[in-house]
Amino acid sequence: MKSGIFLFFIKRAVQDILNNRFLNAITIITIALSILIVSAFGLFFVNINDLLDSWRKGVRIIAYLNNKVSQTEILDVKKKILQIDGVAAAQFKSKDEALKQLKERMKRQAAIFENLRENPLPDIFEVQLSATAQNWEKVEILASQIETLPEIESVEYGQQWIGRITGIFNLLRFTGSALCAVFFMASVFIVANTIRLLFFSKREEFDIMQLVGATEGFIKTPFYIEAILQGIIGGILGIIVLYISYVVVVSNVDQGLSSAFIQIRFLPIPVTLLIIACSTFSGWLGCYLSFKQFLNT
Amino acid sequence: MTDKGNEDNIIRLFHVHKRYATHSALVDISVDVARNELLMVTGPSGAGKSTLLKLLYLGEPASEGQILIDGINLARISRARIPFLRRKFGIIFQDYKLIPSKTVYENIALVLEVSGYKSSFIQKKVASVLRTVGMEERQHAYPQSLSGGEQQRIAFARAVVGDPQIILADEPTGSLDADSANIIMNLLREYHGRGTTLIIATHDKAILRKTQGRTIYLNDGRLENKIVNIEKKPAITL
Fold this sequence. Notes:
The complex is a heterodimer of chains A (about 300) and B (about 240).
Chain A lengths: L2 H17 L1 H37 L2 E6 L8 H10 L3 E7 L1 H11 L4 H5 L9 E6 L6 H12 L4 E5 L2 H43 L1 H9 L4 H45 L8 H26 L3
Antiparallel strand pairs in A: 1-3, 1-4, 2-3
Helix pairs in contact in A: 1-9, 2-7, 2-9, 2-10, 7-9, 7-10, 9-10
Chain B lengths: L8 E11 L4 E11 L3 E5 L6 H8 L7 E6 L2 E2 L8 H5 L2 E4 L11 H11 L4 H14 L15 H13 L5 E5 L7 H16 L3 E5 L3 H6 L3 E6 L2 E8 L9
Parallel strand pairs in B: 3-8, 3-9, 6-7, 7-8
Antiparallel strand pairs in B: 1-2, 1-4, 4-5, 9-10
């Protein structure tokens, strides 16, 4: 397309937006609201993900040795554990050491330990995972691999807790995806409706344009530009409102939270750009569907 | 797609029919129009004059038969080529068909814009046709602020600004007073004199009397006395 004619189309699209300010403003605000909701969820999701990541990094597998393992075999067991793919380190803690620690933690209940004839605690290995193994599925696999070793009585890695967190996380992911889809469709529908209204209000004009030799592209292109502009403006507006809300919320809440858990951060730039791209695409798609359904030139 | 059989005829119709659900608007029309010819299509209201013109610029497709425009068979033309076919025509309607939201200048310039001309060329060309129709002072006016005669002059300017090969005028004076009708007819004759093929659909007897050229008569969708020479006026039943 020649740059001259493209500029002509942009001029026509901008003129149309200005001539139909109210309709376009409603459309842009609706897109902006959809984008705000979707990106707010994205922001929540990104930060929850960070939080879960920090938790994941803290996950350790505790491998309990059975009583038959002698002191001389411990080094062999450590070697076997370290050979498992995904294990970064394995620290042995003897049952005596464990009991000592327990006593220190439970000083007020010291009487409990006085009557103990023998140490009931087992020897353990605290297994640290490598960075690549820090997701729930891999933790489970590693734990079962360690458990299969004959010297290991049992393992513990917070199975129940991990299961719950994973469930909530998946639910959030599913809800987020569904919400994104709903609001994306809402944006598409709104744009399609606006374009349809504009098109029908100009139907006579387009009939005349066709009579003087206008191609479909000549008639449709400004509408596509208009819809894409609606998508871009709506998207940027939504992100700006989200950013302002983020700054306000973070400045009030962050001091306490950031030190305790994580630093609340805004959407990464690639995600922000992706959201604006989706908003732009929703404008284009709305226009395309509108023409596909109703235009029979 | 092109037919080199008879290059002198810019328009050829072979046994053309146009049927609607309840009636036939045109029945077995065969007629040739030579390049640079002036053809008058006459007949009573509802005879099919406007329909015949519509079939030429593919406002509607023919139900049966073949139409060739400058060698292009309209039955075989692709949808994408229709706009380019229409650029061969300058069309004038009884109801002007000007775009109310555009100024006089913009209405005329549109024809050149759709063809992708540069704005500098468009400005010169539009100014030139506005001078021809004597409306250069009103270029910023909107159609609704103009009289019927002025609107038709703008419609005429729009029809000729693209230097079309064929001008189709459908009852061009139907809504005008005598003076305005004269202005429009003089403009049409002037452009025909420059070498443009001109087809005028009219039932205005005064225009038929004053305008030299071949006249065909349609009645109830059928061509009667197929070729009627303007000098043989008694042969035309009006």
